[in-house]
Write a structure and sequence with these properties.
The chain has 3 helices and 12 strands, in the order H-E-E-E-E-E-H-E-H-E-E-E-E-E-E. The chain is α+β, with helices and mostly antiparallel strands. The strands form 3 sheets. Strands 3-2-6-9-10-5-4 form a 7-stranded antiparallel sheet. It has a 3-stranded antiparallel sheet with strand order 1-11-12, with no helix packed on it. Strand 4 and strand 5 form a beta hairpin. The protein binds flavin mononucleotide. Flavin mononucleotide binds next to strand 3, strand 5 and helix 3. It comes from Rhizobium loti (Mesorhizobium loti). Keywords: Oxidoreductase. This is Flavin reductase. InterPro entries: Flavin_Rdtase-like_dom (IPR002563), NADH-dep_flavin_reductase (IPR050268), Split_barrel_FMN-bd (IPR012349).
Length: about 170
Amino acid sequence: MISQDLRTEHFRQSMRRVASTVCVISCRHDGCRYGITVTSVTPLSFAPISILACVNRNSSISVPLKEEGRYCINVLRASQADISHSFSGGRPAERRFDIGEWSEKDGIPYLQSAQANLFCQMDQVVSYATHDIIIGQVAAVAFAPDVDPLIYQNGAYALTSPMALKKAC
Ligand SMILES: Cc1cc2nc3c(=O)[nH]c(=O)nc-3n(C[C@H](O)[C@H](O)[C@H](O)COP(=O)(O)O)c2cc1C
């Protein structure tokens, strides 16, 4: 029987092998902007158009996000590792919006230069252990013409490159 610590470490090592696109969740509440870096974003359904993200209840955005209910999921591009770093603790919460081209739509802060912006209305919150699974309906989107995501894998940032597929005969 392996110890809980070892099981946790094995889980961590397994998850290092999962590549995920880096996003920043942002919202405004009581006149202040909040944002954190997340990779836990998953499209959920087309009817209604919905998306989920898992947010640690200890994070600075947790309470304002749930109280406000309106937020943006900003899908970062490959050149935005500095923004990811800033929103994952590299800068204090009140200075995170100092880098990047942040704008506002209907009171929701969003990163203009992101690959995509998904403006969401929170629909359900499912609490599990340390995290909330935030389910949102997508009210509006904006996206850039290019596809150039910032990837996080093996504890580091990475880039994608298309595979040259062999043509079937
Ligand atoms: C690449 C990356 C992905 C992350 N994904 C998540 C996530 O999905 N959910 C989450 O709650 N925290 C995630 N984090 C951690 C938060 O970004 C980090 O704890 C942040 O500092 C929390 O904000 P706070 O310091 O304002 O509380 C991630 C961090 C990194 C670097």
